[in-house]
Amino acid sequence: MMSSVVKVTIPASTANLGPGFDALGMAFQLYSIVEMAVSDKTKIVLEGKELQGTPADKSNLLYQVAAGLFQDAGQPVPELSIRAASDAPLTRGLGSSAAAIVGALVAANHLAGEPFTREQLFAKASQMEGHPDNVGASMFGGIVVATMPDQDGASIPYVKLPVPKGLQTLVVIPEFPLSTEKARKVLPQVYSKQDVVYNVGHSSLLVAALAQGRLDLMGQAMADRLHQPYRAELVPGLKDILDNATDHGAVGAALSGAGPTILCFFQTEEEAARLREFVDRVMNGHDISYRIMILQPDEHGVQVEIHQR
Ligand SMILES: Nc1ncnc2c1ncn2[C@@H]1O[C@H](COP(=O)(O)OP(=O)(O)O)[C@@H](O)[C@H]1O
Ligand SMILES: N[C@@H](CCOP(=O)(O)O)C(=O)O
């Protein structure tokens, strides 16, 4: 009998864009894939260097998320054959856990006969991550503005914005990992009224600037007081880059998600060259190993192909 293999391609993402903590996400043309099929015995194959060290048994996040979906749908959890690969590095602030959750949910939902809509999968993924920023971008592509609802399980209100034409991203990816869990623990429990008002203003201005393609406002609008100042102690070079990137070719700069990746937006090749030189100088000054990637935005979000075997 023929059985179906579902192949899901998921874009990596950046969250926050500076002030939009837990609310803004943007998808990149940097992909991971998850292939899933019902099988006699669970087998998980993880390909490539980025997934090295990730468990290949039933404790794997992809299996756990897929099993949870079958349970939520009121179906027995089948044995699963899973193959996964990622061009995006893990624990660097490029949304790998969100991409894995989105990939496993979309794949398992297909195998279960599509019991849940995309909006419901988005809500599930956001509950699992605890915030909708990366999962929104991986699910829908482009720039996603979203917020967690007051009630558990309710749908997540969001708006997808196209990425302003010509906006490109240079990411500086340090070699050391930083788990999101650790980078959330350094944040305060309580903020001053001034800092909250500051972020509401900057995040609102940033969303409006993105919606109208006002790249001239991004440098100012991307300033943040809720997370970057606290996370700077975990990311050598961050403060320097945030303070000075716009003087060296950047349209704006931010910590990518919880870090340690740092992102700088730019438009022209000349800006990219100036930025590279600046970033090299800063990171070498801190004696940090890193790599630089130029990433284009993804506008499509998660993509699904079905194969018969
Ligand atoms: N394809 C995958 N398969 C299994 N687990 C994954 C996969 N991708 C990410 N993960 C899990 O997500 C963790 C990274 O999540 P996190 O600390 O939030 O960093 P980030 O999302 O910024 O990469 C990894 O340590 C791993 O446990
Ligand atoms: N809003 C979250 C985003 C975490 O993104 P990740 O890619 O680092 O997992 C946060 O800032 O904690």
UniProtKB/TrEMBL annotation:
Assigned keywords, A-Z: Amino-acid biosynthesis, ATP-binding, Cytoplasm, Kinase, Nucleotide-binding, Threonine biosynthesis, Transferase
Domain GHMP kinase C-terminal, residue spans: 207-283
Annotated catalysed reactions: L-homoserine + ATP = O-phospho-L-homoserine + ADP + H(+)
Record bears the keyword Transferase: yes
Main location: cytoplasm
Any one GO cellular component localisation term in the record: cytoplasm
Top-level taxonomic group: Bacteria
Location of the protein in the cell: Cytoplasm
Assigned EC number: 2.7.1.39
Residues that hold ATP according to the record: 89-99
Gene Ontology terms, MF aspect: ATP binding; homoserine kinase activity
Domain GHMP kinase N-terminal: 60-142
GO biological process: threonine biosynthetic process
UniProt-listed InterPro entries: GHMP_kinase_C_dom, GHMP_kinase_C_sf, GHMP_kinase_N_dom, Homoserine_kinase, Ribosomal_Su5_D2-typ_SF, Ribsml_uS5_D2-typ_fold_subgr
Pathway where it operates: Amino-acid biosynthesis; L-threonine biosynthesis; L-threonine from L-aspartate: step 4/5
Family the UniProt entry places it in: Belongs to the GHMP kinase family. Homoserine kinase subfamily.
Function: Catalyzes the ATP-dependent phosphorylation of L-homoserine to L-homoserine phosphate.
Protein name: Homoserine kinase
Organism, scientific name: Brevibacillus reuszeri
UniProt lineage: Bacteria, Bacillati, Bacillota, Bacilli, Bacillales
